[in-house]
Design a protein that fits this description.
Elements (H helix, E strand, L loop, with lengths): L3 H9 L3 H11 L4 E5 L2 E4 H17 L7 E4 L6 H11 L3 E4 L6 H11 L3 E4 L1 H10 L3 E4 L22 E8 L5 E7 H15 L6 E4 L6 H13 L2 E4 L15 H8 L3 E5 H14 L18 E5 L5 H11 L4 E6 L9 E4 L13 E6 L3 E6 L11 E8 L5 E2 L3 H7 E3 L7 E11 L5 E6 H5 L11 H15 L4 E12 L2 E10 L8 H11 L8 E4 L18 E2 L24 E2 L1 E2 L8 H22 L14 H24 L1 H5 L5 H16 L1 H10 L5 H27 L7
Parallel strand pairs: 1-10, 3-4, 3-5, 5-6, 9-10, 9-11, 11-12, 12-13, 23-24, 25-26
Antiparallel strand pairs: 1-2, 7-8, 8-18, 13-14, 14-15, 15-21, 16-17, 17-20, 19-20, 20-21, 22-23, 24-27
Helix pairs in contact: 2-3, 2-8, 3-4, 7-8, 10-11, 16-17, 17-19, 19-21
């Protein structure tokens, strides 16, 4: 915890770069950033940032502007971030190796005045957007003065735009001010006990909010920020066996990992020196590390306690929770002193708010609910940002007025939680991950569904053969949504097939609460940020394909992407076989045929048609009937197939209705045309605008659907 004098110094700095300038003045020779053999002292970092700030200002970056920073791992990225702030502008962190679709979206949405990068990325970034490119490795800064540029900047000015996935998967820019991150910094310093003696490991990618959190924590305190040589967040092949050696060699004292990396680290440490049950490890697996924080995804209590046991009492292991929109981290749970519990594999505890932050659990009416009752987690306090860039509706619906909070404003997170009687916050799940995109008008209905999925997921994790699990809600039948479980199982474990796991959950949970099916998968699909990728989860196979065999291989077929099929359903469940769809086509085609003379008498008479053309007209009438039957069948069964293509919901709905119209409208249209006199202009006009114009519009919608790429996910 900082002393009163240190706390007063922190409060005296009202901008992020002002805080770093304070540290540079106190200890200019102290190492600020280290990456491999490259180092920058605080004095060097500050001086280079001043020179670059003046260069950026000369290139057109004005106070209040925005600059994208797209640099690889190294020391120069921190010079660039501070330079943008010193110029009075806000930075937009952008990973230069990101997919083209993501680069284009962020650059178009953020509309930066400049892009700060290096020559190796110049062509790609220039192609992704119209902003002016500044390459640090070729820019001549020798003529730039090294004194501070003196751009007017205050605590309410924008510091950065952090892009974070929204419920649709489209990255959304969170507007974060200097005062928001300074408030978060003061909370981190108090809870983490940060000091200039700390050496903080940076493992994340530039584009994620934890990257900003790491450098603010380190450089704001006067500590040393050590950049891991490999990007452990994006590099899925990185071997964590080298992490303990890196920690020891660099004297790391503090590091943060996402939940996926924490699981991999725990598995590696357990394999390296597996202790007897209940016994601590001999030696220290991460020597010198006094604090390890884990976030970004649901992390269960048994996982936290397991890692705490592996690392020993000399290391605090925290489960942290928060959103970029609210200062990155809002709550924390400390595993030290917590005894193992029977429900540890079923609960995720995210604890209590950081100093300066307030957290509530609110009901459908937007007011706090009693302890023990599930509701939406709401965050308030100094970390709350402005809202979202170019998303006025999202800002209005999520940053809402709250008379019960001292500031009168809270952020509705979209996460479901429960405040326990002891004041500890329990995390149940993210609504968008469990049930998919949730319209603001329907949020009240999802709390119970997310809570049911959390119960099922906890029970599935408790199965001895299951290593990792997820339970989400999918529309397996038109108009009916069901829970589906996904399990990463131990190789050759008994009872690890989909059917057996489904039966296990059916016995463990109340009637009607068990998932419709459980799909064994080699691993859960992940987004770039390491979070569960809901859209890439395979669909379960029909139950008739997954009957119990007593083998671990039953129901273990998996597919890649959203269109795959795998897993097994519960006994007694049913699915819609293809023959039902075919039967629907045949039935409604037949009904169209027998109804033609009822609704359109004489429309299919061939008396005036020469005999040589009878066959072709009969074939036309048959095709019209079949198209009508297919359109009706698609109306009943086609929407889930359209949704699986990954386009936006509204476009998918319009496309679904357009396909129905394109197929089903030919039967009434052609029959009416055949019965209409060619000179009956009022009726001809009415039919043109009833049938032909909507057909053109429907075709245009389908064309847009086909050329529109699935949205980029993070």
């Amino acid at each position: 915890m900082p002393t009163d004098g240190e706390a007063a110094e922190d409060r005296a700095a009202d901008t992020l770069h002002g805080l770093v300038e304070l540290r540079a003045g106190q200890a200019p020779q102290a190492v600020a950033v280290r990456c491999g053999d490259a180092e920058l002292t605080y004095g060097e970092l500050d001086k280079r940032a001043d020179a670059l700030a003046r260069h950026l200002a000369a290139r057109g970056l004005a106070p209040g502007g925005r600059a994208a920073v797209a640099l690889g791992r190294g020391t120069q990225v921190y010079v660039a971030l501070l330079a943008v702030l010193k110029a009075g502008a806000a930075y937009v962190p952008l990973e230069p190796s990101a997919p083209d679709a993501l680069l284009r979206h962020v650059l178009a949405d953020a509309a930066p005045d400049l892009v700060v990068t290096e020559e190796s990325h110049r062509v790609r970034l220039a192609d992704a957007g119209p902003a002016q490119i500044v390459c640090l490795d070729t820019a001549d800064l020798t003529e730039e003065p090294s004194d501070p540029p003196g751009a007017p900047t205050g605590p309410t000015d924008l510091a950065c735009v952090l892009y974070t996935s929204g419920s649709t998967g489209l990255p959304t820019g969170a507007l974060v001010e200097h005062r928001n991150l300074l408030s978060a910094y003061r909370g981190w310093r108090e809870v983490y006990g940060l000091s200039p003696a700390d050496r903080i490991l940076q493992t994340s990618s530039l584009e994620f909010d934890v990257f900003t959190a790491d450098w603010v924590r380190a450089l704001g305190t006067g500590a040393t920020l050590v950049v891991a040589p490999r990007n452990l967040t994006l590099d899925r092949t990185a071997d964590l066996a080298g992490l303990p050696a890196l920690v020891a060699a660099e004297g790391i004292t503090v590091l943060e990992l996402n939940a996926r990396l924490a699981r991999r680290l725990a598995a590696h440490l357990a394999r390296s020196d597996a202790p007897q049950a209940g016994e601590p490890l001999t030696g220290t697996p991460l020597p010198g590390v006094r604090l390890l924080t884990v976030g970004a995804e649901k992390w269960y209590l048994d996982e936290q306690l397991g890692l705490q046991r592996l690392l020993g009492d000399g290391t605090r292991v925290l489960n942290v929770y928060g959103l970029a929109e609210a200062g990155v981290d809002s709550t924390y749970f400390d595993a030290q002193g917590t005894a193992a519990t029977e429900d540890g594999e079923r609960v995720s505890l995210i604890g209590r708010p950081f100093p300066g932050t307030r957290v509530y659990v609110v009901g459908p009416d937007g007011t706090p609910v009693p302890p023990g009752q599930a509701g939406e987690i709401a965050i308030a306090g100094g970390g709350l940002g402005r809202g979202y860039l170019n998303r006025a509706d999202d800002t209005r619906h999520r940053f809402v007025r709250a008379d019960f909070d001292p500031d009168g404003r809270v952020l509705l997170t979209g996460d479901i939680g429960r405040l326990r009687d002891d004041g500890v916050l329990e995390f149940l799940g993210r609504a968008a991950h469990v049930v998919g995109p949730v319209p603001f008008a329907r949020k009240a209905a999802v709390v119970s569904r997310v809570a049911a999925a959390a119960r099922a997921e906890g029970r599935l994790r408790a199965h001895p053969a299951v290593r990792e699990a997820a339970v989400v809600e999918l529309e397996l039948r038109p108009g009916r949504r069901s829970l589906v479980g996904y399990a990463v199982t131990a190789p050759d474990a008994d009872g690890a097939d989909g059917w057996s796991l489904s039966q296990y959950l059916a016995a463990q949970l109340p009637a009607g609460d068990a998932p419709e099916a459980v799909v064994p998968v080699p691993e859960l699909p992940r987004t770039r940020a390491g979070k569960l990728d809901r859209a890439a989860l395979p669909l379960p196979a029909p139950p008739k394909h997954t009957a119990a065999t007593g083998s671990a291989k039953a129901g273990s077929r998996t597919g890649k992407g959203g269109g795959g099929k795998a897993g097994g359903g519960r006994s007694g469940t049913s699915d819609l076989p293809g023959c039902l769809v075919l039967g629907c086509v045949v039935f409604f085609s037949f009904m169209a045929w027998v109804s033609t003379n009822v609704f359109f008498p004489g429309a299919t008479q061939l008396g005036a048609v020469p005999d040589a053309y009878h066959f072709w007209f009969e074939l036309l009438y048959l095709c019209e009937n079949l198209a009508f039957g297919t359109g009706v069948a698609f109306l009943f069964f086609g929407f889930p197939a359209v949704l699986r293509q990954g386009r936006p919901y509204r476009l998918s709905l319009l496309t679904y209705l357009s396909v129905v119209w394109l197929l089903a409208s030919w039967w009434p249209q052609d029959n009416l045309y055949r019965l209409t006199d060619a000179t009956d202009w009022p009726r001809e006009t009415a039919m043109v605008f009833t049938f032909n114009v909507p057909l053109m519009a429907a075709a245009l919608v389908v064309l847009i659907f086909l050329i529109r790429r699935p949205t980029a996910r993070r």
